Amino acid sequence: MKTTKAAKSTPVKPVAKKAAKKAAQKATAASGKATGVAKKATATIKKAAASKKAAPTKTVAKKAAPAKTAASKKVAPAKTVAKKVAPAQPAPKKAIVESHAALVRRARRINRELAEVYPYAHPELDFENPFQLVIATVLSAQTTDLRVNQTTPGLFAKYPTPEDLAAANPEEVEEILRPTGFFRAKTKSVIGLSKALAEDFGGEVPGRLEDLVKLPGVGRKTAFVVLGNAFGRPGITVDTHFGRLVRRWQWTDETDPDKVEAAVGALFPKSEWTMLSHHVIFHGRRICHARKPACGACPIAPLCPAYGEGETDPEKARKLLKYEKGGFPGQRLNPPQSYLDAGGIPAPPLGAG
């Protein structure tokens, strides 16, 4: 009986060991899983903590951004101020305040002084008769008188009368007039003008304003040049120089030639209109230039409200003077000494001091 019990009890131990091993393995696995879960939980906590700590940094960065914006806003006005200061220029000259009677006196005195400087002022176009003068004046548009004077001798030698020019071949006339510029339009004008003279006025240039302005290419300016210099009938020639100078002298602020003519004509006796035009145009071509007038060498500096717009140094100003080739009889190259003091400086300009 003992032998049988021993035989039966012997295999019980291995089973118990196996069960114990399995239990141990399960316990180990469970503990491993717990450990893993714990590690994951710990990592998650750490990440959460890290994110919580980092979050304020982002918030701070966002808060810091407005500081830059504020700084830029503070700097912006400085740039704006710089832009306002940069284009600063001298204040424009104020218009002089004078009565109409004072304006008339000043304007007439300017004309008298210019007459002393340019005693032989005249139309600078070469002509021998009214026909040549009206043709030359039409050709002078958009070119110089010198260029016209170089061109018209050949034209008049070939076509001496209105009848000759009216019957001319346009292509031949264009070749002659080419140096004056806009030669096609000018050819059309002078041929049309000549036909009108031949057909309507018996080949003669009319001596009335209302007849002259009906001719092709002839406006009031050309008509007054012809009336004043070919017929001795007073007229004001409002060309580019004349309009520019009378506005600079504040005789008028009109820009339309007809209105300029009326405004300036009211300041002078009609008998002075033609020579007034010559004086002003001569002065505009020689001293009172458009871009850089020679103020320091100007004989009417004391009467000019625009004194100082150009060069005021006498020596530098004299270098700006311009004169046509050959000048003209009696032309005076320097301003009258009555306008210069002992040091060669122009008298104080109008309104100074």
Automatic annotation (TrEMBL):
<feature type="domain" description="HhH-GPD">
    <location>
        <begin position="139"/>
        <end position="286"/>
    </location>
</feature>
<dbReference type="InterPro" id="IPR000445">
    <property type="entry name" value="HhH_motif"/>
</dbReference>
<feature type="binding site">
    <location>
        <position position="304"/>
    </location>
    <ligand>
        <name>[4Fe-4S] cluster</name>
    </ligand>
</feature>
<dbReference type="Pfam" id="PF10576">
    <property type="entry name" value="EndIII_4Fe-2S"/>
</dbReference>
<dbReference type="Pfam" id="PF00730">
    <property type="entry name" value="HhH-GPD"/>
</dbReference>
<comment type="similarity">
    <text>Belongs to the Nth/MutY family.</text>
</comment>
<keyword id="KW-0234">DNA repair</keyword>
<keyword id="KW-0004">4Fe-4S</keyword>
<dbReference type="InterPro" id="IPR003651">
    <property type="entry name" value="Endonuclease3_FeS-loop_motif"/>
</dbReference>
<dbReference type="Pfam" id="PF00633">
    <property type="entry name" value="HHH"/>
</dbReference>
<keyword id="KW-0326">Glycosidase</keyword>
<keyword id="KW-0408">Iron</keyword>
<comment type="function">
    <text>DNA repair enzyme that has both DNA N-glycosylase activity and AP-lyase activity. The DNA N-glycosylase activity releases various damaged pyrimidines from DNA by cleaving the N-glycosidic bond, leaving an AP (apurinic/apyrimidinic) site. The AP-lyase activity cleaves the phosphodiester bond 3' to the AP site by a beta-elimination, leaving a 3'-terminal unsaturated sugar and a product with a terminal 5'-phosphate.</text>
</comment>
<keyword id="KW-0456">Lyase</keyword>
<dbReference type="InterPro" id="IPR003265">
    <property type="entry name" value="HhH-GPD_domain"/>
</dbReference>
<feature type="binding site">
    <location>
        <position position="298"/>
    </location>
    <ligand>
        <name>[4Fe-4S] cluster</name>
    </ligand>
</feature>
<keyword id="KW-0540">Nuclease</keyword>
<dbReference type="InterPro" id="IPR011257">
    <property type="entry name" value="DNA_glycosylase"/>
</dbReference>
<dbReference type="InterPro" id="IPR023170">
    <property type="entry name" value="HhH_base_excis_C"/>
</dbReference>
<feature type="binding site">
    <location>
        <position position="288"/>
    </location>
    <ligand>
        <name>[4Fe-4S] cluster</name>
    </ligand>
</feature>
<keyword id="KW-0479">Metal-binding</keyword>
<feature type="region of interest" description="Disordered">
    <location>
        <begin position="327"/>
        <end position="353"/>
    </location>
</feature>
<dbReference type="InterPro" id="IPR005759">
    <property type="entry name" value="Nth"/>
</dbReference>
<keyword id="KW-0238">DNA-binding</keyword>
<dbReference type="InterPro" id="IPR004036">
    <property type="entry name" value="Endonuclease-III-like_CS2"/>
</dbReference>
<feature type="region of interest" description="Disordered">
    <location>
        <begin position="47"/>
        <end position="92"/>
    </location>
</feature>
<feature type="binding site">
    <location>
        <position position="295"/>
    </location>
    <ligand>
        <name>[4Fe-4S] cluster</name>
    </ligand>
</feature>
<keyword id="KW-0227">DNA damage</keyword>
<dbReference type="GO" id="GO:0004519">
    <property type="term" value="F:endonuclease activity"/>
</dbReference>
<dbReference type="InterPro" id="IPR004035">
    <property type="entry name" value="Endouclease-III_FeS-bd_BS"/>
</dbReference>
<keyword id="KW-0378">Hydrolase</keyword>
<keyword id="KW-0411">Iron-sulfur</keyword>
<protein>
    <recommendedName>
        <fullName>Endonuclease III</fullName>
        <ecNumber>4.2.99.18</ecNumber>
    </recommendedName>
</protein>
<keyword id="KW-0255">Endonuclease</keyword>
